[in-house]
Amino acid sequence: MKLLIVMIFGLGAIAGSLWLVQKLAVNVAPPTEEKTQPLVDQYRQELNNAIEQGNQRRENDEKQLESGGNRTGN
């Protein structure tokens, strides 16, 4: 009788563990492409904007150096 009770609790624990693992696996599954593509496009646009700003600053710095000054006005 005791063995039967232990076996029932053991099977319940195993089933509960498998259920929990399944629930957690669903929550950590990798996102699909349709969810990530808008973020990729946004980050790509932000990166392109930052590169363009850097290029403009470099051009402005080069113009300042050619005119004999620097960015701080000295």
Summarize it:
81% of the residues lie in helices and 0% in strands.
**Average pLDDT value?**
84
Q: What number of domains?
A: 2
User: What composes the largest sheet?
Assistant: none
Beta percentage is under 5%
Order of helices and strands: HH
- Shape label: rod-shaped
Distance between the termini: 93 Å
Using only C-alpha atoms, the radius of gyration works out to: 31 Å
Q: What is the number of beta strands?
A: 0
Spans where pLDDT lies below 50 across 5 or more residues:
none
Structural class: mainly alpha
The helix content is: over 70%
Helix count, DSSP H or I runs of 4 or more residues = 2
Question: What is the fold's blueprint, element by element?
Answer:
Blueprint: H1 2-27, H2 33-66
Please tell me about this protein's structure.
By secondary structure, this protein is mainly alpha-helical. The chain is built from two helices and no strands. The chain has two domains: 1-30; 31-68. The radius of gyration is 31 Å and the shape is rod-shaped.
Spell out the key features of this protein:
74 residues; mainly alpha; 2 domains
